[in-house]
Amino acid sequence: MNPSHKTLALEHIHTGDKLKLTYFEQGHYIEGALREINYLLRDYHNDAVHPIDPALLDQLYDLKIMLGINRPFYCSSGYRSPRTNARLRKRCRCGAAKHSLHMQGRAIDLHVKGLDTRKIRNAALALHRGGVGYYRHLNFVHLDTGLFRSW
Q1: pLDDT (tens digit, 9 = 90+) per residue, 55-73?
Q2: Cα dihedral 148/77/59/61 (nearest 10)
Q3: Which of 102, 112, 81, 97 minimizes the C-alpha distance to 144?
Q4: Domain 5-150 fold
């Protein structure tokens, strides 16, 4: 099934930025909407903006449909500059990979308020697309557009 339009609601937990918009309509991605998403998912440490892979947005949209939710995805990390990624690798035990897909705009860390992250992980695994990381102790799920794998 190919929907005629795709809408997402996103909120960034570190910046407070939020949006709800249609990013795909009548078979085409909407450039202005993609720019808004790129900005919201910027590297909040240095405000670097990078294009977010539309396939990641489609993965989020399909996850939203599978979960049957209309609530926003709360993002803790979208795009990461190489410098920010290197800093995270040194400072935190959050699993920042040396060649993280966050640095290519192909990954997001998220949760949905009021929804157990296990449900998000299980739905993402059922999509059988990209990487699915489950960080129960940090209350987020990592999704990316790389090869299908999980941890």
Answers
A1: 999 999 999 999 999 999 9
A2: 160
A3: 102
A4: Muramoyl-pentapeptide Carboxypeptidase; domain 2 (3.30.1380)
